[in-house]
Backbone:
């Protein structure tokens, strides 16, 4: 009885005698420890829409953007809670050899950038050949900072 439904009620949707509510489906997902794909399939079988939690769009505060703008000779980047690249200056774009404005906003993520474009610009400035995989330091460097909800 982990999902707070009886075995009889559990068998009714299997036999297509009833359509379970979204709260029952959510309880089954939780109790059965279903991953996202399995959850989506369960909701599809039940003819229900999946209620996915949406990430809130993070905005850069004006004061922080002003500081970034003033950093004319120092590379700077403002990362969001999930390491999304929210803002950058020209020096950061030059250092990473990437025009972030050409990357769609939903795909503009620092970790994604490291793993999908590992030979970033800073690797070539040393005169050494470009690596084919990100260095451990590159992958271990970014850490999200715990913050309070907005």
Residues:
């Amino acid at each position: 009885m982990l999902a707070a439904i009886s075995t009889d009620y559990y068998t009714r949707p299997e036999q297509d005698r009833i359509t379970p509510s979204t709260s029952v489906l959510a309880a089954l997902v939780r109790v059965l420890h279903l991953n996202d794909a399995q959850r989506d399939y369960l909701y599809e079988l039940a003819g229900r829409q999946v209620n996915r939690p949406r990430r809130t769009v993070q905005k850069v505060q004006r004061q922080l953007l002003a500081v970034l703008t003033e950093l004319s000779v120092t590379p700077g980047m403002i990362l969001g809670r999930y390491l999304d690249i929210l803002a950058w200056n020209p020096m950061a774009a030059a250092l990473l050899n990437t025009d972030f404005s050409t990357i769609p906003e939903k795909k503009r993520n620092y970790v994604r950038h490291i793993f999908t474009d590992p030979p970033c610009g800073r690797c070539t400035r040393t005169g050494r050949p470009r690596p084919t995989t990100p260095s451990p330091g590159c992958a271990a460097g970014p850490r999200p900072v715990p913050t309070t909800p907005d």
In short: The two ends are 37 Å apart (CA to CA). The chain has two domains: 7-46, 62-136.
